[in-house]
Amino acid sequence: MKxxxxxxxxxxxxxxxxxxxxxxxxxDDGWDIEEDLPPLRTDVxxxxxxxxxxxxxxxxLPFDRSINxxxxxxxxxxxCFARPSHAYLGLSPGLDFETRLIARPNAPQVLRKELxxxxxxxxxxxxxxxxxxxxxxxxVRGITRGCLSVLQEFNHPIGIVTKGxxxxxxxxxxxxxxxxxxxxxxxxxxTLDADLSRRMEPRAPSPQRxxxxxxxxxGAGVPVRVMTSPVxxxxxxxxxxNLLEAGAEAGADAASxxxxxxxxxxxxxxxxxxxxxxxxxxxxxxxxxREMHGGRDYDPRWGHRMRGEGEYAGLIAKRFQLAxxxxxxxxxxxxxxxxLFERPTQIGDQLTLL
Length: 354
Prior knowledge:
The protein is α/β, with parallel strands linked by helices and 354 residues long. It is built from 11 helices and 10 strands. A 7-stranded mixed sheet has the order 2-3-6-7-8-9-10. α8 links the parallel β9 and β10 (254-259).
């Protein structure tokens, strides 16, 4: 059921997560009195983290470990593949995902402890793989900056994925790390249409603002990949070359793309959004997606889930390859340096004689 007065949010429903036995449903109370519900506010609660480095073995990902300072994301991108993760918290992947957030304030301290372990083996850590590390609450909480400071202290390589303009605040850390070959940033650019972006990604920076972020970072010597993700068939696919050109012009030296993914609850949320915002294109969008996934809304198999398969998926891949070749954008970039990793001396450590 749709919830009224959700201006500035991506989802319009708040169905219970798939693990919940009961569901709360909004309904008319029977009184013949018109009244507006209060606006939805963002609620942030703290979690005491016992570990912060998450490990994965997915062959679809170029990294095997990641850090997420927050659970849920206030940017409210309706298509976000991470929405189903909120169900593990007993919350809805719908409005709860973007309004009921979990912060991990002790993440920097726990990260320091994990990196200091004698058994830790260094490899690039991805920051912001599930939810954006530079979403609006980071301005107040500063957890991402705290983690970044720890990683700088250890000379640890890091890859960052974000839409958030707040990353510019941390150029003082990122630029010195970039000089050592320790950092690379990916900026997600889904469309150049500001109106579409505002409806699809209601609390994320505008497309032009994201291009300004690329200019600011590359101007400071921080290498940036423009991520044309997700490509939405029948809605944003015609912009692919323009997105890559805009990213290259702003200073990006590499590019990547991922097709729209609709795992679990995301499919229902997305289809509701399309019916509300782009009803004339709804059938075409879903038809193309199902064509790429064997008739299903989504195919979760490794090697297929990111880009789909078939004639249409192959066409998008070919267009991408031709565009990046013409623009001189890399699809593979040099490995970040791991040889500089060093555990700083901690209070209580035994000092060496040499």
